[in-house]
């Protein structure tokens, strides 16, 4: 650091600065990067409920369209996974990919735990919002419910003996 004028080993000098300068690091210090971590974690708490509700909507779509699909000689199996499950998984991966390295830079080992916890909390909030939106049925909607309703009522199409 250089306060009152600086010189190097050869004797060259240069003027002093009004503030301490650490030439080895131009990056922000850990306390200066912590708000960025918490900002991304907060964004995750807002974004994750959207993805959980999207997952529920994909499951509901597969369930409600299964009758038409069966009448057309096909099925909606796999649609909910690709339309809702994959985006949900990717949202978790993106959240972890952002928060785990950032947590490591700021707090080292504890930062990894903070990053994982932030993703888990955001996901738990998302599940809670999804349960509210789907009236406590977020994990009940889907083809299994449609198939169960056919089996219990005795109605529906028999697509096994075609």
What class would the helix/strand composition place it in? mainly alpha
User: How far is the N terminus from the C terminus?
Assistant: 83 Å
Task: Tally the beta strands.
Answer: 2
**Major sheet attributes:** 2 strands, antiparallel
Q: What is the mean pLDDT?
A: 84
Please, could you describe this protein's structure?
With 162 residues, the chain is mainly α. It has one domain. A two-stranded antiparallel sheet has the order 1-2. Strand 1 and strand 2 form a beta hairpin. Helix 1 packs parallel to helix 3 and helix 2 runs antiparallel to helix 3.
Task: Spell out the blueprint of helices and strands.
Blueprint: E1 6-7, E2 13-14, H1 30-71, H2 79-107, H3 109-133, H4 143-153
Antiparallel strand pairs: 1-2
Which terms summarize this structure?
162 residues, mainly alpha, elongated
Brief account:
With about 160 residues, the chain is an all-alpha fold.
């Amino acid at each position: 650091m250089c306060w009152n004028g600086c010189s190097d080993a050869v004797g060259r000098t240069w003027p002093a600065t009004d503030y301490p300068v650490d030439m080895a690091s131009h990056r922000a210090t850990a306390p200066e990067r912590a708000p960025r971590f918490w900002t991304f974690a907060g964004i995750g708490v807002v974004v994750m409920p959207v993805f959980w509700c999207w997952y529920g909507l994909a499951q509901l779509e597969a369930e409600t369209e299964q009758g038409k699909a069966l009448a057309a000689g096909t099925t909606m199996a796999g649609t909910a996974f690709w339309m809702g499950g994959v985006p949900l998984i990717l949202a978790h991966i993106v959240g972890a990919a952002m928060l785990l390295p950032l947590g490591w830079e700021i707090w080292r080992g504890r930062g990894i735990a903070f990053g994982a916890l932030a993703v888990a909390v955001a996901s738990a909030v998302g599940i809670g919002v999804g349960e509210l939106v789907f009236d406590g049925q977020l994990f009940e909607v889907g083809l299994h419910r449609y198939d169960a309703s056919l089996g219990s009522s005795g109605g529906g199409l028999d697509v096994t003996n075609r």
